[in-house]
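Table S5 (text form). Sequence records supplied for joint modeling of the two-component complex.
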Amino acid sequence: AQKVTQAQTEISVVEKEDVTLDCVYETRDTTYYLFWYKQPPSGELVFLIRRNSFDEQNEISGRYSWNFQKSTSSFNFTITASQVVDSAVYFCALRSAGFQKLVFGTGTRLLVSP
Amino acid sequence: DTGVSQNPRHKITKRGQNVTFRCDPISEHNRLYWYRQTLGQGPEFLTYFQNEAQLEKSRLLSDRFSAERPKGSFSTLEIQRTEQGDSAMYLCASSPRDSSYNSPLHFGNGTRLTVT
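The corresponding structure-token record, covering 230 residues in total, follows.
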């Protein structure tokens, strides 16, 4: 069975603080793909990043960075110098090769105040 | 690329009524997905189409739910005899032809259903 756990329900920070969103996943499959999506108040899920199970390189994109650790089944997401526009619900998701179904975590609501 | 379009944005209905939602995927995307998202939860997979063929269905898709994609373009999701537990956001997503499993899905804004 596949499962994604986002233990942080809600995080509140003040603008310019760094914040890390945790994601822990479970799967028995050897080939799988991990994703992060952002859901602003408008409701549309916006794709942020994907990572293949065989590629453990971490990635930085502007203020965003991702830390994939297969040994701990974690795929954490860090926002550096947070901004008010970062306020949204962030979802981590898992998909196994051969399956169309994308399994989402319960999301972490990030509130960035000025 | 005009994005995935869903209509209506909001639907309020009385218990027992039938409702139908529409999804227009990004043009030339042959893969289409329906998800349901309840308050405080992540989206849950309902069903998947490749062109007009419905290839996967979740156990969440009870016999009151039916999805179609007759010409391989837009899709409809119908809920018959709605129940209060059907209240949720219904999300549609699409992905391109020949996309691999690591390809992201492109989501629409969703249709929020409230059953009173």
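Note: Chain B touches chain A at residues 31, 33, 40-45, 48, 55-56, 58, 89, 91, 93, 101-102, 104-110, 112 (CB under 8 Å).
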